[in-house]
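Onboarding guide, step 5: your first structure request.
Type a short instruction followed by the sequence, for example:

Predict the 3D structure of this protein.
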Amino acid sequence: MIEFTLWDIARNLLLAARWTVLLSLIAFVGGGIVGLLLLAMRVSPLPWLRRMVVLYVELFQGTPLLMQLFLAFFGLPLLGVDVSPWVAATVTLTLYTSAYLADIWRGCVEAVPRGQWAAGASLGMTFGQQLRYIVWPQALKIAVAPTVGFLVQVVKSTALTSIIGFIELTKTGTMITNAAFRPFPIYGMVALLYFAMCFPLTWYARVLERKQKVGQHR
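The system replies with structure tokens like these:
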């Protein structure tokens, strides 16, 4: 058994939390970019594009994230593609995030009254111009709160990447526990760090939701 002081444990967990934050940001930003492309395809007038996006979203929402991580990390090497835990984690979480964000944003776009589309068409705007100048600016106001709320889910989902060997907060906590045999204080600190990362986002999402409701009643 290795002796760890509480400061040693806290310092190592804080260092590991950096990778949790970095992975969350990469997955969220990358997923947002892919999600925007999927959203444009989802609201496209072309039926085959819409069906492709529906299949993509259903695939990632209908299967466990843990299974997706396993397929990326253990399945790709069977096809001759070697991937590190970092690559498998970032790619899988990015695709997973994009599927959910595309679905969230689709609901926000559909919340914009259809009359707004008709108004843009009557002005001679193309489909892309209607999206860019009329629909997306209105949908953005609706989408901010649920998008921030989903970021909390992304942060917590990074814990699953410890299963494939990615050394983030949860994995570091497990490694220290195996060496020090002090699970309660160690996992207690891990839980507090996740809370410290997620609570401000949850609080901000609630503030945005309240502001949105106030704006709707004016």
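Each response can be followed by summary notes, for example: The longest helix spans residues 6-42.
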